[in-house]
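Hello,

Our lab assistant flagged a job as stuck in the queue for most of the afternoon. It eventually completed. Since we weren't sure the result was trustworthy after the delay, we are filing this so someone can double-check. Below is the sequence as submitted and the structure that was eventually returned. Let us know if re-running is recommended.
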Amino acid sequence: MKTFLAKNETVQPKWHLIDAEGVVLGRLAVKAANIIRGRHKASYTPSVDNGDFVVIINAEKVALTGKKEVQNEYMFFSGFVGGESYRKLSEQRERHPEFIIEHAVKGMLPKNRIAAKMLTKLRVFAGPKHTHEANNPVKIAV
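-- returned structure --
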C-alpha cells in the first residue's frame, strides 16, 4: 500500500461560510484554522496548502468568556522608539472587529511560510453581508 501525498496541482478548494454570532471566539478560530489548513480532508498533507476558503460573517457579534472583553489587550508597534501602543479588546471590537478573528486564527496556524498563503483564504466581515455570493459558500455550524 502506498501513502498518498496531495500536490498543489490536484487541490480543488471549496468555500465555507461561518456565522460568528454568539459563537465563542476560540472555538470559531479552531474550526476556521482547521478548514484553512485542510485538516478536515482525508488528503491532508502538512507541507501542501490543500485547505478551503472560509468566509466569516457577523464578526462584531462573536462571544467571549470570562473577563476577556476588558482584560485582553492587543499590542501594536510603529517601529519607532516609544512607538508601542495597546488597545483593549472592547475598543478593537468598535474600531475593527474583523481583526479579533483574524488575529485568533493566525495564532492557530503554523509559524512558517505556507501559513501566509493559508491566511489569504480567510475572509472576515463585520456584518451579515459578504462579497463572495458568487462562490456559493456552504454554511457550516460551529
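-- support follow-up --
The delay was a queue issue, not a problem with the job. The result is valid. The helical segments are 25-37, 68-71, 89-95, 97-107, 113-119. The chain has a mean pLDDT of 94.
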